[in-house]
Amino acid sequence: MGIKQYKPNDAARRESSVDDFSDLTISKPEKKLLLIKKRSGGRNVTGRITVRHRGGGAKRFIRVIDHLRDKFDIPGIVKSIEYDPNRGARIALVLYKNGEKRYIIAPSELKVGSEIISTKDKEIKINPGNCLPLEKIPIGTMVYNIELTPGRGGQLVRGAGNSAQLMAVEGRYATLKLPSGEIRKILKECLATIGTISNPEYMTIRWGKAGRKRHLGIRPSVRGKAMNPVDHPHGGGEGKQPIGLKYPKTPWGKHALGVPSRKPNKYSDKFIIQRKRGKLRT
């Protein structure tokens, strides 16, 4: 686990860096836990582009990740730490005592040969990779892969290097501080995994050239100023000039900056104690 910098033999190499994959223990994935990744190019069922700047990219298989962690009270042994092309974090192949194999998102401290377990009722050690309800985790512990609804599987904090801190457990709810700085309440019966997600250096990788982004399936993003007026509100004009508007707009004419993206009066507002901007909710 680390970042490799090449000699600056050309302009792209000078600005780029790569993951060195030194923490991987095996190169080939478990075939029974693979699915073919279908690609839409950002188009919906009618063929219209609904998500721009997507298309192409290298062919990839989906590793089936166990976000539910529902193998309760059955210990498992970590057999390998592997690469997943669909995420920045590493994944761990776990062999359970009943012979079943599953992939989980690996925490930084997890090693090959480590034993992990998931439980709802038993008292277990607070070791990285163990999964248990928030009400049974000590205050101050770093957790990830957190459920929002009991039994639905982990939905929060799944990116490389991320973790949330358990701040309190009172009444029906546990209070968590998320990586964004947001502080919110979650039902104390929800499961969470102990530890910090692996490969924290992933966010420091510099892609260096447009071609590497194309390999990831990300197509170019064109400035609105460079378009014609028919294509974008910023378009038109002779040569370089400002957008000619009081405020930036999206391609569809809506305000582009400083507009809250969260719906007003959303059902989960009552669970949020502090937004990531640091503003207390009343």
Summarize the structure.
The protein is mainly β and 282 residues long. It folds into 2 domains: 3-202, OB fold (Dihydrolipoamide Acetyltransferase, E2P); 223-270, Irregular (Ribosomal protein L2, domain 3), CATH 4.10.950.
Overview of this protein structure:
The protein has 282 residues and is mainly beta. The chain folds into 2 domains: 3-202, Nucleic acid-binding proteins (OB fold (Dihydrolipoamide Acetyltransferase, E2P), Beta Barrel); 223-270, Ribosomal protein L2, domain 3 (Irregular), CATH 4.10.950. Helices cover 4% and strands 23% of the residues. The protein is built from 2 helices and 17 strands. The protein has helices at 11-15, 210-215; strands at residues 3-4, 18-19, 34-36, 61-63, 76-82, 91-96, 101-105, 115-116, 131-133, 142-144, 146-147, 154-156, 164-170, 173-177, 183-187, 191-194, 272-274. The strands form 5 sheets. The protein has a 7-stranded antiparallel β-sheet, with no helix packed on it. A hairpin with a 4-residue loop joins strand 6 (91-96) and strand 7 (101-105). The longest helix is centred in the last third of the chain and has 6 residues, at 210-215. It is globular, with a radius of gyration of 22 Å. The two termini are 43 Å apart. 20% of the residues are buried. The model has no long low-confidence stretch (mean pLDDT 93).
